[in-house]
């Protein structure tokens, strides 16, 4: 095709120019672009170097000598002809079926070589002259007689259409009275729609106010999170110090027990030695020695008893002090545990607000798109209603007793055709539907935000798992709608479960958000499959992606607090930890299966009654 294009261009007499010969190609075919660039370097037309430009939309560069339109863009040829009419610009088309509009039309005869047809009259109208050598390239000239016959047949068809329209015109005489009533009904419907639009606009303004307050709350929550993180670090240091002190106290108690045992052994040894000495004294002396021995034995026994009681009392006091300190440490630990639980609840809420803050831009974009539906629809409604307002006014002015009623009706029908009344009425119905779609979309987004941002302190209620999954997908819509395909495999008639509204939406949002990040890291063709099923007395939810997956080491730590595989600043490491806590709070279980480069699958089981 490219070589044939250059050959045809060389057989045209062009106006004298000193600038390069400019060829503009409208195509998206990268192979065709590459071949054009390569060939243009070795070609000259009329002694001028060749310069080729490309676009994928209709445009006419200044000073273009030739324009090539590939088959995909044939629908743009009429508007292109209007732009280049009367200028020395040659239009090459690719298998264009309207011969009367072509200049040079490249034809593909399947198994045969490429050929072309040329409309000499259209080329001449552009101020260009075809050289006689053009015949050597083959091709054919457009049959003007055939084109004339097509035009004549088209005129005859238009005459038949005019006769049909005359019959329709006669039927309009009868429909005028009915149309008058329909116009009045349309006025009433439009007024109702305007009232509804005003009401929806007020709702949108309210939601914008709520979004502003949510942004402020998010900023405040972020400050609290930083402060709580600092407090948590201090608490961990205090716990470490207390653990060391308890260990030291236990070591001291153990050393005291050892010392007491050694003292008892020494006393026993001394008693044995005293007995041996008494025995020797008994042999040396009778009465006096026995009395002295008895006295000495009594004194020694009292000394031993006093020493033993003193050691017991000392050990008792030391153990009592250790027990008291241990009790105080237990109280501190219990108080610290309560504070940690409160901190955990605040972290869950802060993570929820942080997730909502990250999604704010996408949610605002979704709401803005819905509002654009409403605004554009109102603008078009206003324009179209202004166009048909004169027709409606003339209909209301018709009088059945008027002698010139037929003439007035004819004028009315003519005026109706002039303003394209039927087309305008169709556009009005279409715009009303568009406004309704935009308003419903806004309502869905706001409803999802309300469910997601519910307080953690609410009581358990019945929860529709499918609804919570849809809320999570709705809030993440701006992140996955263009890059990731979501496949929902929801089972029929899944019963509701007992749980806390908003928490399961947060858990599903955290998992799906991580899956989207994983899929985006892998590149194009990302998919996420979501399955639901009833398994005995529980509901099972599976969320599976074909992303980058994770190693076995990362999989074992994936639910640990502050563990993340993302870059610094891209994640807090709390999302899946909080998700694990939410599932446990509902009496359920969550496991993950994953391998590197093979995606990941999260399996959640929730009891129907927790």
Automatic annotation (TrEMBL):
The reaction(s) this protein catalyses:
ATP + protein L-histidine = ADP + protein N-phospho-L-histidine
Domain named Histidine kinase: residues: 362-610
Q: Coiled-coil intervals in this record?
A: 197-287, 319-353
Asked whether the keyword Cell inner membrane is assigned, the reply is: no
Write the protein's name. Answer: histidine kinase
Work out whether the entry's keyword set contains Transmembrane.
yes
What PANTHER family is this protein classified in?
HISTIDINE KINASE, SENSOR HISTIDINE KINASE
A Pfam family of the record is: HATPase_c
Q: Which residues cross the membrane?
A: 294-316
Task: List the keywords (alphabetical).
Answer: Coiled coil, Kinase, Membrane, Transferase, Transmembrane, Transmembrane helix
Instruction: Give the species.
Output: Ekhidna lutea
- Per the UniProt entry, the Enzyme Commission number(s) are 2.7.13.3
Tell me the lineage of the source organism.
Bacteria, Pseudomonadati, Bacteroidota, Cytophagia, Cytophagales
